[in-house]
Each structure stands twice: as C-alpha cells, then as structure tokens.
Design goal:
The complex is a heterodimer of chains A (408) and B (338). Chain A is 42% helix and 18% strand. Chain A has 408 residues and is α/β, with parallel strands linked by helices. Chain A has two domains: 242 residues, Rossmann fold; 132 residues, Rossmann fold (3-Layer(aba) Sandwich), CATH 3.40.50. In chain A, the strands form three sheets. Chain A has a seven-stranded mixed beta sheet, sandwiched between helices. Chain A has a six-stranded mixed beta sheet with strand order 10-12-11-14-15-16, sandwiched between helices. In chain A, strands 1-8 form a two-stranded antiparallel ribbon. In chain A, helix 12 links the parallel strand 14 and strand 15. Chain A is globular and about 65 Å long. Chain B is α/β, with parallel strands linked by helices and 338 residues long. Chain B has a single domain, classed as Thiamin diphosphate (ThDP)-binding fold, Pyr/PP domains (Rossmann fold, 3-Layer(aba) Sandwich), CATH 3.40.50. In chain B, 31% of the residues lie in helices and 13% in strands. Chain B contains eleven helices and eight strands. Chain B has an eight-stranded mixed beta sheet, with helices on both faces. The radius of gyration of chain B is 19 Å and the shape is globular. The chains are: A alpha/beta (408), B alpha/beta (338). Strand 9 of chain A pairs parallel with strand 2 of chain B, so a sheet runs across the interface.
Chain lengths: 408, 338
C-alpha cells in the first residue's frame, strides 16, 4: 500500500509486519519515533503476542533482546549514536551467541562534542562486532531491508543491523510502499531458532572458551557471515518478486558500466551523488556510482566486479578513522589491491553538515582531472582551521577565541 | 515418592542447625531428595570450601523443586560462571544462559518477556550473580528490573569482593577488610568505613514483592526463602552471604562456621521483607562479639596481633557498632531493650 509517511513510522510499520515478539528500547534521537510507534501498537493491541519493554538503558535494551531471543522470541530494538556505544558490549555478545536480533540504527555522530545529527561514525564503531550491517538509501529501501533483515537473521542465526541515516531518512516524509501482511508472512516465516533455552532439554549457552577453541569459534563466525553474501541476494530477489520492486541486494551500481571514475558511498547521500553523476555524464565525464548496501559482510567480489572499468575511485564517507583516514575506503582499497586504481577519500556530512551537490561536483571534476588529493574533507572551513592552528602555536589553552578577545 | 527417600543418617555436632532427619519428611530439604535436580552438579572448578557453589546448588535445586523443573537460569559473569562452564564442560543441569557481567537482570527480563510472548510463562526465571554483578557493574540493570517489577528472582551470592579477578574491593566489601585494592597498609588499613551498598535495603526501596537475606550456614532457611520467592510473581531479590576461603583468607572447613558467625554477631542480618516492609527476621540464638567473626579471617588480620589479641580496638568497636545497629534495626535479639 502506498503511503505518504515519515521514515521512522514506515520502519515501525515494517517491523510490525514482521510480527516481533519482544520489542525493547531506550529513547535516543533520532531513533525515538520508531519505538514510540511500536509501543503504541503493542499497547492498543494491534500487535499480537508482543511484549514491549521500557528499559533503563541501551545496555538493557540489547540485553533484553538477548534474553528474549535465547528463548526463541523474535526480538527487535533500535538505537543510535551514544546509545549504540553504551550497549556495545552486548552488541558483540549477541553476535557471539549467534542470536538473530534485528536492530535499527538511526545513524548519528558520536560525541564529544555532543552532536545529534547524522553521520556514520556510530555504525563504523561496531563494524567488527559480527553483525550484518545493511545501509538504506531511501525510506522505501529501509522498509524493504527490515523485512529482509528478519528472514536473513533467522536463516543464518546472525544479528542484523539496518542502518538508516538519522533525520535525513528517519524524519523525512515521503511516499513508501508498505507490503501487505500476507506477503510479509510469506517472506518472514515464524521464528525457528537454531538454539533455544528449554527446561525440558536444558543446555548451557554462553560458556567460557579458552585459547584451545576460540580461534575456531571466530573462524566459523566468519564462514557464517560470508554465507550472508549468498543469502542476501537470494532473499532480495525473492522479496522483489513478491512486491514488484527492484531488489535491495548487496550493492547498487549506477551508470558504472564502463565508467573510469566511480564514486562509492553508503546511505542516503547516494541520491545526491546520482544527480551529480547525471550532471557530469551530460558534460562528457565518464563517471558512475556504486552504492554499498551490505557493508558487513563486505561484498568483495561484487565490488571488484562493479569497479572493473574504474581507474579512479572516489569514496564518499560520513565517517573516518582519526589518525588514518576513510573506513570504507580501506575496504575498497583492499578489494582493489591487485589493480592499478587510485582510491580517494572524501569525508563529508560529519555531524549533519549538508552535502551539497555543487561541492561534490567540484570534487568529482577534480578527480576526473587528476587533481584531487588522497583525502579531502568536503566543505572544510579552512580559514577557521588555520586560525585555530595559528593560535595554538602560542597558546596551549583551549579557551575560545571570543573569550580571549574579550579579555584583551 | 517421598517415602522412597534415602534415610538421612548424618547429624551435626556442635552446631545449632536442625538436623534434616528431625524434620518431617515432606518438609525435608530439597538436597535430601535423591531425585533432586543437581542443578549445579559435581566436578566444577570452584575452590574447596566455596560458599558460592554451595549456595547456588541449594538455591537452584530449591527453585527447581518449586517450579517442577520449569526453570531457566541467567548467570552474570563471575566466579560462578567461570568455574562452572569451561568449554567444553558444563556443570549446569538446568537451562542456563550467560551473557555479560553487567546485564544478568536485563537478560532475565528478556527471558521472561520472551517466554510470555511465546506462551510459555509457566517457565520461571532466576538470575544470579556475585556482589560485583549485583551491587556494582550490574546495579543499573538490577534496579531497572526491580522498578519494572519483572517476573524474575535475582539471587546475589555475596562474597564481598571480586574474588575471581584476585580479591579486589567491591561495594559490599566491609570496612577494614583487606583486599588487593584496599591494602592493609597506611594509617587506616583495609577498606574505608562509611561506604558500600546494602543491596537488600536498596531492593526494599523499590517496594518489590519479596526481598530476603540468607547465609550458607542455614541452608534450610535458604531453601525455604527460594521456595517462598518462587511462589510469588514480580521482581524478587535474595541476598545470600557466601564466605570465600580465597578472598577472606579462611580455612575451607570454616565456611559454614563463618557464615553462622556473620549471623550470630549481627554483622549480616537474616530477614525477609515484602513490599518494602520487614516481615520477619531470624533471631540470634547465641549473640557473639564481632571479634570472634573477624579473628579467623586473614583479611582482618591487621586488627589483631599474633596471639589473637585485638590491636585496633577502635576499629573493632566500629564494626561492633554496625552489628549492634543491625540487631536493633531487625530486632535480632527480641528481649533486648530497644
């Protein structure tokens, strides 16, 4: 059914269609609307056999999901930013225990300085946790990915995180096609857990594993994660057939066949990037784009295949590893390590800064002309940075310029 | 069949424990039943004389009996978890889940919610941990579970320190006690006074249906409190004092005696409370001076000389004052002029 709906509410509707049995969450912007909507559905009885737990922290949110999943209940939570970091120990734990929890991550910057706006730093902080991480480009894709996520998580017994850009997606109202309940019931069958706590067949879950077997446990986790690279396209194709929309698979190529300059990115910024690609194509630049929908596990072979014509790749990232550089860029460079391809990193949109088409256009033109540096901070206020660097040469204090000026 | 139980032959000498054989058959301890659950079976790696292993075995078998085996147990990280489940072995004969140090109460909430959502709420939930996972790192989760009144019994086995990591101070370590982080050096050796948490009273402040304390000296009392807790729904809390030979510097054979002394001195009050009000307490049968409890423990050795004479009377007096306050607060000596 086509609806004009806020992203968060569309996600809540999609989660409800998947018949979760335990929903638990702690409020944090910009995720809050999702759980408010689900909480209301449970309270008014619109969701059958579903428990909504108002928890005392994000650590508790993920822990409740762990406990519920361990007894065979389909469990869902949502978080963002600081909340994700607060629960990070339990995030790793859910993956280690092989519990198919599904979580929405409304991507947001990490403080200090405190900042509630969108970037991808939070998702990058847990990229090694053993969760499948899917990034939505649009709210339609966010809905589709959530339905896929429950089936995927339970098929593999691996938790899945659906990343949606905070505010940009969660708070924008646009047309979304919400699938019918009978369609979702076909795509997401009842939860058949791989392991379950049952007093009549007691098992110990969460035992201590020492050096003699820990490597093997991790190796098997890696195999299970890599298996997702086969399962995701299968599920995406099947879902696409059911709701007659393009599949939300591992990657999204856009005009990249035979492009020599390819821009790689994740999430909602791809919309702007595609506009710029169209614009530059019209001026004769041989440019294309590649959206990464599945960041973990990283689809190395698919990425290699889609970048085969590229001699230069620009990775636009809403996060970076302080002291090194781009995070996605590192993965892209690894995928291309036997090829003569120049990989650039454009760090953009940190802490919610808008990513303008004009700014990207200028950077991509530089890339096409071979003048783009290896790492660029998009729309950096260089005058401000220079002034601060100059001040620090003679003043260790971090007091503000304004205060110093007043004192003088 | 109760009548098929093995006759209990042992009886205890020199103690005030009621021998199991003196109790009517149907009131006998869960442990006297040859078909007991053996929730924590033998062969685990706890130290000899471990109070926690003893407490957990009795508590869980009582809970298993009370729920006719329909029980799921959530364990926080700590000694109990480490010594019972070195992969590929497990000592648990109960459905058992360990997640993390800080989150046992929350995981138990999730288990209870999941059981309700899947129509299996006949299965009951016990969460357990040490004093670190209860009073310190796990306290936020515990308080949240209490205030939501989730259908979970949380059992804290309190050995008054982080014994698994080498005996560091926790917020239940008593004043003056030596630990690896409150060394017996300087002008005020051992742990500071005026700190720490009384978790049973904090639990009562949440006005949950049931709070109780117990020690491993009176296992019949421990079992009956677990059974009482399992007869109720909502958030319940049981705080069990479990001496630790390693951390307290005591002989393995003295675990029960020290637990009893903790009670008989008034240092550890044994009581029950419902909805925030104390409903019963176990009176002291032979009120004992606190130094009798402190002297056998190496963690208090700096209060005594080699002959056992008190060298820090002011510190011992301070501990005695705390015990006396407990005696008044919980009416542990009924005849005493209040």
């Amino acid at each position: 059914m086509q609806r004009q709906i806020e992203g968060s509410l569309a996600i809540a509707e999609a989660v409800a269609l998947c018949r979760p049995q335990v929903v638990c969450a702690y409020p944090i912007s910009p995720q809050t609307h999702i759980i408010e909507a689900l909480g209301a559905m449970v309270k008014e009885g619109a969701l059958d056999n579903c428990e909504f737990v108002n928890v005392d922290s994000e650590m508790a949110a993920m822990s409740v999901a762990i406990g519920a999943s361990a007894v065979g209940a389909r469990s869902y939570t949502a978080t963002a930013s600081q909340g994700l970091l607060y629960m990070i120990e339990a995030v790793y734990n859910a993956a280690g225990l092989g519990l198919p929890v599904v979580m929405t991550l409304a991507n947001r910057a990490i403080g200090a300085p405190i900042n509630i706006w969108n970037d991808h730093t939070d998702a990058m902080a847990v990229r090694d946790a053993g969760w499948i991480q899917l990034f939505a480009e649009t709210n339609q894709e966010a809905v589709d990915l959530h339905v896929l996520a429950f089936a995927l998580a339970e098929e593999l017994s691996v938790p899945v995180m659906v990343c949606v850009d905070g505010f940009i997606l969660t708070h924008s109202i646009e047309r979304v096609d919400l699938p019918d309940q009978d369609v979702v019931d076909r795509l997401v069958p009842p939860f058949a857990p791989r392991q379950v706590l049952d007093p009549n067949d007691p098992v110990s879950i969460g035992a201590m594993v020492g050096p003699e077997a820990f490597t093997e446990v991790r190796y098997l986790a890696q195999l299970r994660m890599r298996r997702a690279l086969e399962v995701i396209p299968e599920l995406a194709e099947r879902n696409a057939d059911a709701w007659h929309r393009p599949p939300t698979g591992l990657i999204h190529p856009y005009r990249s066949i035979d492009a020599t300059l390819i821009v790689v990115a994740m999430g909602s910024v791809l919309g702007t990037i595609k506009d710029v690609v169209d614009d530059l194509r019209a001026t004769g630049v041989n440019i294309g784009a590649l959206g990464i929908s599945c960041f973990r596990p990283f689809p190395v072979n698919e990425v290699r295949e889609q970048l085969r014509s590229a001699t230069r790749v620009v990775v636009v990232e809403k996060a970076f590893s302080i002291g090194n550089g781009g995070v996605l860029s590192t993965d892209i460079a690894m995928a291309l390590r036997d090829r003569r391809v120049t990989v650039h990193t454009v760090v953009a949109g940190l802490g919610g800064r808008p990513i303008w088409a004009a700014s990207l256009r200028a950077l991509f033109v530089n890339a096409a002309e071979g003048t783009l540096p290896a790492t660029v901070f998009c729309d950096l206020n260089e005058e401000l940075v220079e002034r601060e660097l100059e001040r620090m040469t003679h003043d260790r204090s971090s007091r503000s310029l304004a205060r110093r000026d007043r004192a003088e | 069949m109760l009548s098929e139980r093995t006759p209990v032959r042992f009886y205890q000498v020199g103690s005030f424990a009621v021998g199991n054989r003196l109790v009517e058959l149907e009131r006998r301890s869960a442990q006297s039943d040859p078909r007991r659950a053996n929730s924590l079976s033998s062969g685990h790696r706890a130290c000899a004389g471990c109070g926690e292993a003893l407490g957990a075995r009795y508590a869980l078998d009582a809970a298993m009996r009370a729920t006719r085996g329909q029980l799921i147990c959530v364990n926080s990280t700590g000694c109990l978890e480490v010594f019972s489940t070195p992969y590929p072995e497990t000592s648990w004969r109960v459905a058992w889940l360990h997640s993390l140090f800080a989150n046992a109460a929350s995981v138990a909430t999730g288990v209870a919610a999941g059981l309700r959502a899947t129509g299996r709420d006949v299965v009951r939930v016990v969460a357990q941990g040490g004093d670190g996972g209860t009073a310190d790192i796990g306290f936020g989760a515990l308080s949240g579970m209490f205030e939501r009144n989730d259908d979970v019994l949380f059992i804290c086995y309190d050995n008054q320190g982080y014994m698994n990591t080498g005996v560091q101070r926790s917020s239940t370590t008593p004043g003056a006690a030596r630990t690896a982080t409150t060394q017996a050096v300087g002008p005020q050796p051992g742990n500071a006074f005026g700190q720490g948490k009384d978790v049973a009273r904090l639990a009562m402040a949440h006005e949950i249906p049931y709070v109780a304390t117990a020690t491993v000296a009176d296992l019949f009392d421990l079992e009956s409190k677990v059974e009482r807790a399992m007869s109720l729904h909502g958030a319940r809390y049981l705080h069990v004092l479990v001496p630790c030979p390693l951390g307290w510097g005591t002989l393995s054979k003295d675990t029960i005696a020290l637990a009893r002394l903790a009670h008989e001195t008034g240092i550890f009050p044994v009581f029950e409370a419902e909805y925030g009000e104390v409903t019963s307490s176990v009176p002291l049968r032979h009120r004992t001076a606190v130094e009798e409890y402190l002297r056998p423990q190496k963690r208090f050795a700096h209060l005594f000389d080699k002959s056992g004479a008190v060298t820090s009377p002011d510190v011992v007096a301070r501990i005695q004052a705390l015990a006396d306050r407990n005696i008044r607060r919980y009416s542990l000596v009924p005849d005493e002029d209040q």
